[in-house]
Design a protein that fits this description.
By secondary structure, the chain is of the alpha/beta class. The strands form 3 sheets. The protein has a 5-stranded mixed beta sheet, sandwiched between helices. Helix 4 links the parallel strand 5 and strand 6. Helix 5 runs antiparallel to helix 6 and helix 6 runs parallel beside helix 13.
Length: 305
Amino acid sequence: MVKRIASLLPSATEIVCALGLADRLVGVSHECDFPAAIVGRPVLTEPKLDPRGTSAAIDAQVRRLVADGLSVYRIREAALRAAAPDLIVTQEQCEVCAVSFREVQAAAQALLATPAAIVSLKPDRLDDVLEDFLRVADAAGVPAAGVALVEASRARLDRIRRKVAHARSRPRVACIEWLEPLMVAGNWIPELVALGGGAYELVAAGAHSPAIGWEALAAAAPDVVIVMPCGFALPQTRRELPTLTARPEWQALPAVRNGRAYAVDGNAYLNRPGPRLIDSAELLAGLIQPGHCASLLPPNSWEKI
């Protein structure tokens, strides 16, 4: 069983904690903010951009860095050396979500006196996320905890299925993952929408989130729109909403005309492929099928636009 774990992304930190291993975290990423037990742990990464900017400004910074062949984040080398982990959990799913896997491998080899095992997560779909629970648990030496976490997660997902089974309609849903440029959510989101009683035709399950034109969004005629910018808590999303709401195309969407446009805390939910993805499934079900699932809505997770 490993004794010293470093997590380089928020979802991995949440997985480690859900497995009952919070006391073994010797370092986390600069974005790790949940659960409260990990606050104050050594921070092992830092961004090369200002995450407090507008979506357009962040996108421009990311594109410049990637065009120059650079990572969006860097490892704090002295902090990683001092942490001396024997297990590092990182990711390969998204080049703008965490330090690149290649850099993690190089840093671990160069900085650590004792080799560390590296688990790299690359979930595209919901089952991949659950499989990652097992992979992290196995690597940490607590396989039974991984099985228990997956079983509990599947039980909650099954509860959603039962609640929406008799829904009379499946509204068309659009989940907006970025504002400038306009992007719709892919990966596990189409599955979560379908699970929650909605129809999602903009992106195939497992596909990365694509940019979309306003004409295509209008043509999809969504009955429900959920705005969930990746990494944005509700106050940051609220400040940027005029980017959407000032446009005539937005005003013409069926969801907007019928009062079914919502902003969601994208930092806490939907965009982190960890244990709170199950909370995210309940959140979507509550917004899509409120007559059946309103009781599942996590508090303070959303607001009407």
